[in-house]
Amino acid sequence: MDWNTGIIIGIYLLLLAGGIALCFRGLKLYKVLQFFLCGGVGYYLGTLLLRKWGAEQFYIIPILFAVFLGCLGYRYYKLGLYVGGAAGGFVVVFSYFWSQAVELIKDGIGGLSQTKILLMNCISDILSGMAPEASVASLTEGQTTLLMQDINVALDILQKGILYAGLAGVLAGVLVLIFGDFVIMLVTAALGATILIMFVEIFVFLAPTMHLCGLIGVTVAGLIAQGTGGRR
Questions:
Q1: For residue 73, which of 47, 43, 36, 22 has the smallest C-alpha distance?
Q2: Which residues, including other chains, have CB under 8 Å from residue 50's CB and lie 6 or more apart?
Q3: d(CA 23, CA 194)
Q4: Residue 185 in contact with residue 26, Cβ under 8 Å?
Q5: Distance (Å, rounded) from C-alpha 198 to C-alpha 68?
Q6: In this prediction, what percent of the chain has a pLDDT beyond 70?
Q7: Which end of the chain is more exposed for a tag (fewer CB within 10 A), N or C?
Q8: Which residue blocks in 54-76 are alpha helix, DSSP H?
Q9: Over 80: is that where the pLDDT of 126 sits?
């Protein structure tokens, strides 16, 4: 067996082991999982700070950030659970208002990507205390009059979206705390089931119906296994 074959087999085994662990032992492994997730966020933030300061030689800083946030997430896992639920609720609700705002002015701009750029520039201008007309003019060759009415309506939609999404985020965070164990079991079982189905499809083709049935079946099996396996 050559080196490349050994690496591929190792990756397959890690994929299988990770899927099984997440699907059937996710509740017990959640704190460890959150340690690595928070550690990854800390490393990313540390890297951003180094780039902003132009001090890449202090590579120890991202590592310290990773360890600190990882330990914080492990120790106060309920805080991480709340933040994750709140962030998820915010994103889901705000995405609806964002799509409404984009759809409102997309036809006048002539492209979806330009519409999103325009909205982001307008939001940046407002946060900086500037009028959004300059951003509109930069993408519409000065023809701001026809679009500013729609732009203002879109910005009003986004303001309402932020308010409703914030409330939804708080509610989602509270619900996740109340039903914390079940949420953890459901998410980890579904994620583990997805990985396991991916592993199976490396060797066997599954029709869409079989894929969905297998995903649901393995997820339910993971929920049952975690539910009968005791708490953390």
A1: 36
A2: 56, 58, 59, 61, 62
A3: 9
A4: yes
A5: 33
A6: 74
A7: N
A8: 60-75
A9: no
